[in-house]
Request: fold
Amino acid sequence: MKIFNKYSFPLISSIFLTVVPLLFSSALTVAVITHENEVAKLPWQDWTWITLICCITSTFAFTPPTLLALIFGYFIGWHAVLPVFMMNMVAIFLVNIITKRFNQDNLRTYLSDNIKVNSILENIRKQELKFIFFTKLSPILPFALTNFVFALSGAKLKNILLGGFLGMIPRTLLAVWTGSQAKEIRRLLENPNEGNLQKILIILLIIISVGGVIYYILPKKTP
Reply:
């Protein structure tokens, strides 16, 4: 019996990749704002446990990495760089493993029925590292969704990890820096891109990433 069909797959994916992250992130934002003073006093041991928990929540799309980078950057400054990168890499790895544990052939068959989707997956496989890099460079593409697509496409794990790591360097450092410079946690989470410099850098990342993704995703004309 197939777990995913043309009705269940879109429904399940839409819930877990849109509704669940929105609800969980909203609850996390309220909790952090409400308990700011308590969170600010947490010892490094507690931040270690928080990092491990966030590895799991990021894997299952509950917490966007940018939100976590902002929060970590606000409370522990540049010390947040290592745990945030660790969360990202662990989440990418776990999504790849989990996807392969499920009936991956059924998922691929379902997606392959769509000619456009199948063409995109083929192009990803031809330019894995470059495509993954430009995708992860984008601050607007969903972290969990891209992890799932890369795993489903059959891309090599080393390319997924390397491309993900390199692509997320600029956006992660920008988020941590923005968080470390913020004066109030409420203002930071409600207006994460308030500064002009942050807006300019985010726009540049979006332009570069979108340009790269379009270049590598479109079919190439043979001479």
About this structure: DSSP finds twelve helices and no strands in the chain.
